[in-house]
Amino acid sequence: GGLAGAWFAKSGMQGMSATVLILLATMAGGAAWAWIAGWLQVKRGVEAVISTILLNFIALEVLEWAIHGPLQEANKSLPQTDSLGRATMLYRPDRQMDLNAGSLIAVMAAVVVFVYLYRTQAGLKLRVTGDNPDAARANRIDAGKAKIQAFLVSGALCGLAGGVEYAGSAGLIGKGFSQNWGFLGIPVALLSGLHPLVAIVSALYFGALMAGSENLGRFTSGGSTLVFVVQAAAVLAFVAVGQIRLPARRSPSIQ
């Protein structure tokens, strides 16, 4: 997604209109990349966990090629893209802080996904397909189409996340652009119970952990490592609570 935005930024447009178009380009790029995994699962039976992980490595190689080739900065001295102009970056209340309008975009995206999943017919079909594909087919829901749709929406959101990182914080794309945000998104989603609105709280929790670990790392040798321990403990605790509650949920139906 970030690469797609950087490719559009090569057009030289500046200002807020360029920012919007860059973010749209990142969404399109993310959706197109996710479509590959969706097609592989629906048409060829390839598990999404495998295809998406392998596509990550391909994406990293594409990034490496792009910043050494067509997207390299004008002077051709560093493996990175040209920096976005200040007028094209997302609004930032304080230039000394990383906080920018991307945080508001993330909250809005979570609300839109909630409305889509729980207040629309298409969202209902998507949830039915995810919970029970056989039940979806019995109700004449095209499970393959719904899965592709889920990949496209997810890919667009991931691409938008890359766009926020690009236009909100980094301002350019280099070797360090990919910082495993996607993998961090997995425990965030798990801890939220896969609910879009709860994911906002979960994301703030993990964000606070990461920000706190940076300060802790200045005073202790294990500060940067401690955050991963706390993340793992939180996810394991969530899974444990879910397993404990599972028999309680099943008992009424058994009786």
Short description:
This protein is 74% helix and 0% strand. Helix 4 runs antiparallel to helix 7 and helix 5 packs across helix 7.
Give the topology, please:
Layout: H1 2-9, H2 16-44, H3 48-68, H4 102-119, H5 121-131, H6 133-138, H7 143-170, H8 181-191, H9 196-219, H10 223-254
Helix pairs in contact: 1-2, 1-7, 2-3, 2-7, 4-5, 4-7, 4-9, 5-7, 8-9, 9-10
> Which oligomeric form is depicted?
single chain
Poorly predicted regions are none
Cα separation of the termini: 50 Å
Radius of gyration: 20 Å
| Number of separate helices | 10
User: Strand tally, please?
Assistant: 0
Give the overall form.
Answer: globular
Roughly what percent helix? over 70%
Mean pLDDT: 87
What's the helix-strand series? HHHHHHHHHH
Structural class: mainly alpha
Biggest beta sheet summary: none
Q: What percentage of amino acids are in beta strands?
A: under 5%
Keywords:
255 residues, mainly alpha, single chain, 10 helices
Characterization of this structure:
α1 crosses α2 (about 15-45) and α4 (about 100-120) runs antiparallel to α9 (about 195-220). This protein is mostly helical and about 260 residues long. The model has no long low-confidence stretch (mean pLDDT about 85). The protein is built from ten helices and no strands. It starts with a helix and ends with a helix. It has helices at about 1-10, 15-45, 50-70, 100-120, 120-130, 135-140, 145-170, 180-190, 195-220, 225-255. About 75% of the residues lie in helices and about 0% in strands. The longest helix has about 30 residues, at about 225-255.
